[in-house]
């Protein structure tokens, strides 16, 4: 994956509207949201893309694509240039240190197995959200930078050194557990509702744990950007995802200490990327369900920026993402570099044909890397897809079919849309 030359790509129905050399020009991109979304839908509806079914327009699917494009464009506008968000010197130094330690050649060695949280350092408080009663679990993250030269600023963030999780559990003995990982920009108890965990807890009789990812929810400092990663800066991503993997594995270990009879992972968007990464590192998982997952962050960022820039401007702005150092650092946190440790019949993917945020091609990349397991294609876009009935049924069926729960009235598995 090293030595990549970045070339902006014209995707189906998408042509960069104009260069965006200034903040003012970036804001003008909001005016092109509807034309760009329409061009995408026309292109996606004419023929199947590589591994992605045709987009079938309907009022809900059209509205969802426009909303996705609006959110993606707003994120691009407010993020600023790639050059302004990375430290090329730090990236080169980090890549050199990783090579010297042998981690580039053996990425799995970078992710050390964390110890389970100790009883004495774990706090469990009963909380209430309207009529929902849940547990708020906290314990020290214990994450440490694997290299000799740590990032003092990252490790000194006292909010981020404390791990948080929201738990729904039954109190009548050991049960299966689902570790559910949220997308970017959230990390509050409300995730229990809109991600479907309350329904899973009640309908399937399982326990659910929502670990909060680094720099999210109560781990985010006041004034800190709501979306701090993924970032064009490979060092930021390396720290963020290595700590995410560490914290999720500690959450899994904590669930096992509670007597879990089985442990499944469910991740959505950023959480899907994290879950797929954990599935290539953690042993003895019983099922992994990933939704709307990115799988190749540099390619995804290149694609997003290429929507808004002329080829010349894109070549200049995106060049750092294709550097040898950037690709080498990314190897350590890419799900595509790790063979899944869960059997093929216990891997599940759901994706949206109109996804303008994570993009369906990213889901196809992971699906193929996972040897093409069961996949559900939704006629929707990124933002509404997690709350669709089809999505909820697919997740429930995956947990039942893989044997995570012995729910005695399984719903029929729905075939993948073609």
Architecture overview:
The chain has a 9-stranded mixed sheet, sandwiched between helices. The chain is α/β, with parallel strands linked by helices and 418 residues long. The longest helix is centred in the middle third of the chain and has 24 residues, at 234-257. Helix 2 (33-46) crosses helix 3, helix 4 crosses helix 12 and helix 8 crosses helix 9. It has helices at residues 23-28, 33-46, 59-79, 88-101, 152-155, 191-194, 197-204, 234-257, 270-279, 297-306, 311-318, 324-331, 360-369, 389-401, and strands at 123-129, 132-140, 162-168, 177-181, 207-211, 263-268, 287-291, 347-352, 374-378. The chain is built from 14 helices and 9 strands. The model is unreliable at 1-21 and 408-418 (pLDDT under 50). It has a single domain (23-401), classed as Rossmann fold. 37% of the residues lie in helices and 13% in strands.
